[in-house]
Amino acid sequence: MVAFRVLGPVEAYEQDDELDLGGLRQRAVLARLLVARGQVVPVDTLLYDLWADDTAKGAQSGLQVYISRLRRVLEPGRPRGGPNRLLVTVASGYALRVAPDQVDALRFEQLVRAAGEHLEEGDPQSARGRLEKALGLWRGTPYSDFQDQPWAEAEVNRLAELRLVARERHADTGLRLGMHAETVPDLEALTTEHPLREEGWRLLALGLYRCGRQGDALAALR
């Protein structure tokens, strides 16, 4: 089963072997489909997003070549002429049919969601385990090779926001488990990096108070 990594540079693996995804534009085609999270991306959208600044008349045929190459890389065992099961053609577009455990970003979301459910059930220990697994999936900026592309921007920002939520929840579990001294430095770093996030300051004030630093706790709330 092919596994995709997008929480950092875009990569694909079969077992432990990294797959050769080709040149920049071919990898961009794959990244654009991954950004869609299983939804169909029309051919016109792919051409506009990936060839917008290129007047080459062969853009559509170029796209077909990249799709064909990616299919060979991602499904090397597919019989010639057999159905595509991963990178599929749907109407006038393409889609990647992947399970959540095949894409690190989808797995990350799944783990953060499960952690939230554990917190609601009053089980911070299980929540913390899920969050540590989730945060451990990150290798850098999502889609880092394409983070400046307009078509990737919203997804990059969405994942970055969800990572902040995960960090806040991880700190929350630390406080609930009595790990105040260990958690405060993480919260100090978080509030320094993101001073406008109220949840970080609330948790920091709580952690400082429980460490006996009432004055610092009051200052954190100002």
Brief summary:
With 222 residues, this protein is mainly alpha-helical. It has nine helices and six strands. A three-stranded antiparallel beta sheet has the order 1-2-3, with no helix packed on it.
Protein model, in words:
This protein has 222 residues and is mainly α. The protein has 2 domains: 100 residues, Winged helix-like DNA-binding domain superfamily/Winged helix DNA-binding domain (Arc Repressor Mutant, subunit A), CATH 1.10.10; 120 residues, Tetratricopeptide repeat domain (Serine Threonine Protein Phosphatase 5, Tetratricopeptide repeat). The chain has a 3-stranded antiparallel beta sheet, with no helix packed on it. Helix 4 packs antiparallel against helix 5 and helix 5 runs antiparallel to helix 6. It is elongated and about 70 Å long.
Number of domains: 2
What's the count of strands?
6
By DSSP (H or I, 4+ residues per run), the number of helices equals 9
Note poorly predicted spans. Answer: none
Strand content: 5-15%
Q: Find the CATH superfamily of the largest domain.
A: Tetratricopeptide repeat domain
Strand-and-helix sequence, N→C?
EEEHEHHEEHHHHHH
Largest sheet: 3 strands, antiparallel
CATH class of the largest domain: Mainly Alpha
**How is the largest sheet built, in terms of strand order?**
1-2-3
